[in-house]
């Protein structure tokens, strides 16, 4: 009787360990970040910040040398089985985050521009989340050579530099970064290009505009980087309108924007947990009304 139950126990332990070896359940922290990443992918699409293209990622909360983002898929369609854990060192896929038996080359192809994310994480240890998007209200600014400047408190993270947010211009990269024979297709597809983009950030601004392409946004959490991306788009709309109105005014007038003090204080207030939480509650409720978006990690 005793030996039978010990045998049964051993068998069940072997079974559990075999299962463990194949699929390790992600930690609570990773699961929580993954829930936000899926919501973020859906929200960024719902709010028209990105379309079929563009992406959001998070540093792995359990290991700061890794980051998590989906393989190459339209963000609106992302589910837990699209999430991949990548090396920050070289943007190589390690495994599917929620099926660790799928590793290395067996992981479906990632976004060719995942180097935007890996090199920003490498350059800025305090950055925990990144968005890259082709938002059409933002693109005219780099095209006109005009940076964005904070015009409203919720967009304070854009900063108040005289020339506005820095602009990453593919056409003016040196041949050491973009060799003559490399495709000049605006895509940031290796560590050297990613590093050049990351090096364009200014301490004053969370955003870099990309000429003919879109923007890169860095943040301190997934919710924070979605908030910054949304209000970068809204700020672009406000700054465009202000520029046109100012040009029509007697004598002409460029938008002044916020003072550095106001931008800084407003950012501290507006990017606090309470404000982010209020926005997140609305945005998750909005994506929940549309069956296109499936977050299978959230009840
Ligand atoms: C998980 O997250 C909590 C809250 O952010 C943090 O205090 C804790 O250290 C994290 N655990 C690990 C293993 O990183
Ligand atoms: C953290 O990630 C690095 C790079 O993938 C890996 O070499 C290291 O073993 C990981 N650390 C832990 C504690 O898992
Ligand atoms: C990528 O980086 C990781 C961590 O440094 C390293 O272990 C791995 O060998 C690298 N892979 C490739 C293909 O270079
Ligand atoms: C994990 O991936 C393997 C290989 O594709 C597949 O056979 C298995 O069903 C997957 N497991 C889960 C839980 O999806
Ligand atoms: C920008 O920030 C980095 C670290 O966050 C710091 O080392 C550097 O001195 C800052 N540069 C300027 C011009 O303030």
Automatic annotation (TrEMBL):
Source lineage: Eukaryota, Fungi, Dikarya, Basidiomycota, Agaricomycotina
Protein name (database record): Class II aldolase/adducin N-terminal domain-containing protein
Entries under SMART domains matching the protein: Aldolase_II (SM01007)
Domain Class II aldolase/adducin N-terminal: from-to ranges: 35-240
Species this protein is from: Collybiopsis luxurians FD-317 M1
Top-rank lineage group of the source organism: Eukaryota
Keyword line: Signal
Leader sequence segment: 1-21
GO molecular-function terms, A-Z: actin filament binding
């Amino acid at each position: 009787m005793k030996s039978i139950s010990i045998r049964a126990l051993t068998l069940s332990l072997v079974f559990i360990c075999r299962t463990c070896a194949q699929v390790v359940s992600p930690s609570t922290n990773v699961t929580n970040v993954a829930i936000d990443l899926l919501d973020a992918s859906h929200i960024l699409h719902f709010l028209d910040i990105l379309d079929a293209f563009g992406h959001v990622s998070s540093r792995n909360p359990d290991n700061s040398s890794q980051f998590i983002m989906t393989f190459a898929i339209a963000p609106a369609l992302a589910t837990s089985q699209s999430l991949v854990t990548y090396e920050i060192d070289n943007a190589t896929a390690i495994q599917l985050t929620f099926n660790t038996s799928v590793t290395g080359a067996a992981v479906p192809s990632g976004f060719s521009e995942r180097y935007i994310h890996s090199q920003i994480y490498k350059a800025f240890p305090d950055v925990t989340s990144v968005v890259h998007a082709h938002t059409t209200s933002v693109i005219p600014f780099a095209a006109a050579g005009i940076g964005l400047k904070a015009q409203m408190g919720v967009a304070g993270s854009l900063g108040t530099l005289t020339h506005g947010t820095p602009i990453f211009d593919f056409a003016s990269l040196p041949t050491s970064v973009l060799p003559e024979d490399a495709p000049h297709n605006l895509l940031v597809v290796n560590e050297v290009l990613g590093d050049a983009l990351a090096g364009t950030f200014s301490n004053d601004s969370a955003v870099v505009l990309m000429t003919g392409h879109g923007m890169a946004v860095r943040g301190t959490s997934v919710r924070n980087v979605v908030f910054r991306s949304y209000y970068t788009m809204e700020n672009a709309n406000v700054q465009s309108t202000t520029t046109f109105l100012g040009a029509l005014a007697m004598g002409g007038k460029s938008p002044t924007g916020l003072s550095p003090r106001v931008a800084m204080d407003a950012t501290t207030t507006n990017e606090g947990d309470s404000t982010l939480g209020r926005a997140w509650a609305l945005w998750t409720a909005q994506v929940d009304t549309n069956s296109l978006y499936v977050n299978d990690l959230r009840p």
